[in-house]
Design brief:
By secondary structure, this protein is of the alpha+beta class. It folds into five domains: about 70 residues, no CATH class; about 140 residues, Toxin - Anthrax Protective Antigen, domain 1; about 90 residues, no CATH class; about 230 residues, no CATH class; about 90 residues, no CATH class. It has 27 helices and 15 strands. Helix 1 runs parallel beside helix 6, helix 14 packs antiparallel against helix 15 and helix 21 runs antiparallel to helix 26.
Amino acid sequence: MIDVGGASSGGRPEPRRRGLTAAWLALGGLAAWLLLVSLLLGASGGLRGRYAIRNPDGTLQTVHERIDARLDFPVPQRIDAAYIFHWNFERFGFPARMPPAVIRWSGLLSVPESGRYGFVLDAQGEAVLRIDERALEVRTDALTEVDLTRGPHRIEVDYAVNRGEARLVLSWQPPGGRLQTVPSRFLAVDAAARRSIRARRFTGRALLAAGLLAVAIVAWMARRREGAAAALVAALGARRTMLALGALLLLAAALRLHDYDLVPFHHETADEYQHAWEGWSLLHDGVPAAWTTFPDRYPIAQTQDFRWFGDRYVVARPYFDHPPLFSLPVGLLSSLVAAAEGPTPGWAAPYAYLRCRLSVMRLVPILFSLAGLLILYHLALHYGASERAALLAALVYAVLPVIVMSHRLVKAESLLALLFMGALLAVARCDRSGKTIDAVLVGGLCGLSLWTKATGIGVLATVLVLLAARRRYRAALIVAGVSAAAVGLYVLYAAAFDFDIFLKVLRAQATTKWVGLEGLTDLLAGKVVVKWFGRGFYLWLLLCAAIVALRRERGLLVPIAIYGMVIALTADQRVIYGWYRIPLYPFLCVAAGICLDTMLREADLYHTFPFSAAAVSTGLLYTLPERLVQSQPAVMLFALVALAPFVLRLAHDRPLTARLARLSTYLLLLLFVGTCVASVGGLLEIYAATRGVR
């Protein structure tokens, strides 16, 4: 077993437990403090939005109410979500299409200084802006100016869109300022909300100052090398790896939960609902049911054909397109949340599974990905990476935008990635012990992989190759036997419902596979679903895998090669979807961590330039303003940081140039992490604007 908690105190368990408890308490306290400070300091104003639909008689029915920090909706997802995620079937009927949106935002606009203010209201549809109950003629191509006195003013925006994608952005230009969306700090629901926001921000600043002061006092007292402060600092230092992993876990959770129900977009892949509906129906009805890619292989009497928010679904019962293991936790969580919200109306019983919402479903893959981060650290150590390289691998896994987005998708690959990593760690344990029980464990993980996704065969193939390479033939036979038993159980599962339909679906799936060599080239592209996204990030991961293939950690290439080939051989004939890569990401991140560790140690052109040209440039491309991205000075500035220090060291290697190169190396790493975090923060707009949709 790998101990990441630091050395014990003289081999005595009691001091070690006390130190571990202190470290956990410190980490928990720090996390709670940071969360509370961020919530208080992040307290923002906004306008109350009432999202309604118009009845045939002209009256309005409110679907949802919420506080919108800014009226900044350049893409339709935020507006649509208010209807899709909060629809009441009993009150509003079945939503065969997206309803015409009728929205009113109301509240107070706090004017910081008296003067002439210009307003622009860019909207798809009809929009009216009223300030102090006076309607303004606002245009999208010119400023509408109005004189306002310092202080709060009543503001209302009415918006309606009957067709097309909803879009609305309210901007203003203060006296002597630039045109920008109205900041949330100048908006409030009412006077009480304004006072509450000010109080919360003051409390946040006080709490931040108190926390920093407490840290400074503990650090000062620890310098005396005695007392409780010194013991606490020593305990934290001994468990710095555990604390670093905890910090990365918090960072990964924060990034994955930011706008997680909006990006990737609703119905960008209907497969997310596929898993949720299958799990729901298994738990509630005892029969799997979900929308199918092969409706012609199911008897028409056993299907439901309907449109839901404008998208068509054909739900088959019983359903056999995918194995059910991953669907069960998704359906279970959705069922628990639905039960807490109240019973399903009787008339909607045939469509009860539509209560599965992305905001609930996506929590399951996010939790799996957070567990995967911890397993990834141990996987990196297993492949011979240093402690710092393992932490860097976890850092890449935590922040890389294409991975963050993929880990939100309700796809079985998120569970398969855990099983894949666990199976390889179990193989190492089996190799060390030679025990039958360990071989059975490996076989069980392989069997669960097959119950998760058909491509789980790649996990089994990798395990058998590794066991054969280590001459563990008996263990390989046990693994194959347990996996075969798992397949047999799956066949019995299919036979319990309808084996004839099961065979028809298998034949249909076989006709869309084995398509050709173009699958291998498609596998090299960065995607989340089908949209090209993060190609530079993904290219850098592949470059890292290629570099590691020439090092002692080259064993990483075995699961990458085998699973990559399985994807190419079994992928859909239309495209290799982005989520197929999820089980590869842990191994690619381990390779990236090893390369980053070497880069920080060497600080030379050979190790930094691939990272800069692929990964850092992609992050800058997503976060810098477009006018800056398209300018020559931006490229020159990038070259100054990413190339000049290392070329200088190459031409004249001296202590000064070496220190400059090392400083630039750490700067590049910080720039990479910063742009990744910023990209995730603005994913809704960034992802919507990304071109290259296939």
